[in-house]
UniProtKB/TrEMBL annotation:
<protein>
    <submittedName>
        <fullName>Rhodanese-related sulfurtransferase</fullName>
    </submittedName>
</protein>
<feature type="domain" description="Rhodanese">
    <location>
        <begin position="236"/>
        <end position="339"/>
    </location>
</feature>
<dbReference type="InterPro" id="IPR001763">
    <property type="entry name" value="Rhodanese-like_dom"/>
</dbReference>
<dbReference type="InterPro" id="IPR022111">
    <property type="entry name" value="Rhodanese_C"/>
</dbReference>
<dbReference type="Pfam" id="PF17773">
    <property type="entry name" value="UPF0176_N"/>
</dbReference>
<dbReference type="InterPro" id="IPR040503">
    <property type="entry name" value="TRHO_N"/>
</dbReference>
<dbReference type="Pfam" id="PF12368">
    <property type="entry name" value="Rhodanese_C"/>
</dbReference>
<dbReference type="InterPro" id="IPR020936">
    <property type="entry name" value="TrhO"/>
</dbReference>
<dbReference type="InterPro" id="IPR036873">
    <property type="entry name" value="Rhodanese-like_dom_sf"/>
</dbReference>
<dbReference type="Pfam" id="PF00581">
    <property type="entry name" value="Rhodanese"/>
</dbReference>
Length: 461
């Protein structure tokens, strides 16, 4: 067990049990203002007295009555430690404003994914990379979403591209103004690169002919403009269907014009085109001519479309097309043309307006395409009023935690809860305003939350 006594100038540590006594010999005096800091230790129980390094990441939690620090650490090898230690203080201060989020995936056969996971972990640790997120590998390839300082994030990208199996990966990068968008790094083997009912190991993901044909963003835009122009002239093109392969709540804050809201709350339960009945109201592919209808599929980054297109191919759908790189790649290249609203993302940012990925879109003629401000489609889940802030929030009731879209009036009236019932729940967190998100329960356990003591009494019974 490590006990820490700290102030603004120094930290002292004492170790119990059989751990070796350590002497802290290097601490930055301004560490309390940082999200991480490098410590240099000496082990005086060893003759060589060789210094070694740990990089600590702080999660500060302060209240009027108490202060606490929770931390995680990474043991750094001397080379990586020196690289961090020698960085200038100005660079350290600016690093927080140079965070990025990196997304990529690739289907390729990997003979020994467990060994490859170990290799990736070794690289991240040896280089002391400050990256957090989800990086999954298995026999079918890799799927990665992570955040970090630009230097660290790109170091991993450049290293992975040295592997010929991943040399042609489409890398997507977007800025993060609030530092890390993921709490920890999960780099591990996972049987399915995406969650889907029954898993994906039995799907022909490694066969390009079984996946949908990818369309470049420019070609996708041309097709959408033609389809939507025909619809606006009351001449719907029944040979095309724009299929949103995301969740309904993602559609609620942004989507392509002409795409129906998917009646799905989790991708793993998606079943478009799989119904045995001839007509299903909630299924846009119900009663569709599988041989002649062109299905244009899109999702955030592309992987869900690639996975689901193999399922549709197995069920007889012939003309399947996907948006290469998904919506994020489209907005980067084409701007918000044919897109309405924001883009939902599965990290702490939750919602990205098009300018985040594409500050301004310029046509070939030099005309600037304005960002879509048509948010009249977005409705409060509680009162059905229009929502101007295209960003979901979690219910303040910890035991509900529902992700929902809410107007400012309902946030105030229901104290951040999704319904009247949740307002009387035993574990209510404080109402969050703006773009803040709730943290894990342990962050709130020492706070005087309404009903907490009553909850703990019932929990013990």
């Amino acid at each position: 067990m490590v006990r820490m006594r700290w102030c603004s100038e120094a930290i002292s540590l004492s170790l119990s049990g059989t751990h070796t006594a350590l002497l802290l010999t290097h601490v930055s005096s301004s560490f309390l203002n940082k999200t991480s800091v490098l410590f240099q230790f000496h082990n005086h129980n060893h003759n060589h007295n060789q210094p070694f390094f740990f990089k600590f990441k702080f999660n500060n939690s302060f209240s009027s009555s108490s202060s606490s620090i929770s931390l995680t650490h990474h043991h750094l090898k001397p080379l990586a430690a020196r690289r961090i230690q020698n960085s200038s203080s100005t660079e350290d201060e600016n690093n927080f404003h140079d965070f990025v989020v990196v997304n990529f995936y690739h289907f390729v056969f990997i003979n020994d994914p467990q060994q490859l996971v170990a290799k990736h972990l070794s690289f991240v640790e040896s280089e002391g990379l400050d990256i957090n997120g989800r990086i999954y590998l298995n026999e079918q390839g890799i799927n990665a979403q992570y955040s970090g300082p630009s230097k660290d994030a790109m170091a991993y990208v450049n290293w992975i591209k040295e592997d010929s199996r991943f040399s042609d990966i489409l890398i997507q990068i977007s800025p993060s103004e609030t530092g890390h968008t993921f709490p920890v790094l999960k780099l591990r083997y996972k049987p399915s690169l995406v969650q889907f009912e029954g898993g994906t190991s039995n799907l022909p993901l490694l066969d390009p002919s079984m996946r949908a044909l990818p369309l470049a963003p420019s070609e996708w835009r041309e097709r959408l403009e033609a389809i939507n122009d025909a619809h606006s002239k009351d001449c719907p093109n029944r040979d095309y269907i724009i299929l949103d392969v995301r969740n309904g709540y993602e559609w609620d804050i942004g989507h392509f014009r002409g795409a129906r809201r998917p009646n799905v709350d989790c991708f793993r339960s998606t079943s478009f085109g799989l119904s045995q009945e001839e007509i299903t109201a909630s299924d846009p592919l119900s009663n569709v001519d599988k041989e002649n209808t062109n299905i244009l599929m899109y999702c955030t980054g592309g992987i869900r479309c690639d996975v689901y297109s193999t399922i549709l191919r197995q069920h007889g759908f012939q003309n399947l097309y996907t948006l290469k790189g998904g919506v994020s790649n489209y907005i980067k290249n084409e701007g918000p043309a044919e897109w309405i609203g924001n883009l939902f993302v599965f990290d702490s940012r939750l919602s990205l307006p098009p300018p985040v990925n594409h500050p301004q879109a310029i046509t070939e003629g030099g005309t600037t395409i304005p960002v879509s401000r048509d948010d009249k489609f977005a409705k409060c889940y509680i009162c059905n009023a229009g929502v101007s802030e295209l960003r979901h929030r979690n219910c303040a009731n910890l035991d509900c935690n529902l992700l929902f879209l809410c107007c400012s009036e309902c946030v105030k009236d229901l104290r951040g809860c999704c319904c009247l019932t949740c307002t009387s729940a035993p574990r209510l967190r404080p109402v969050l305003n703006g773009e803040r998100r709730y943290k894990k329960w342990h962050v709130y356990r020492d706070m005087d939350l309404p009903g907490k003591n009553l909850y703990l009494i019932f929990k013990k019974q």
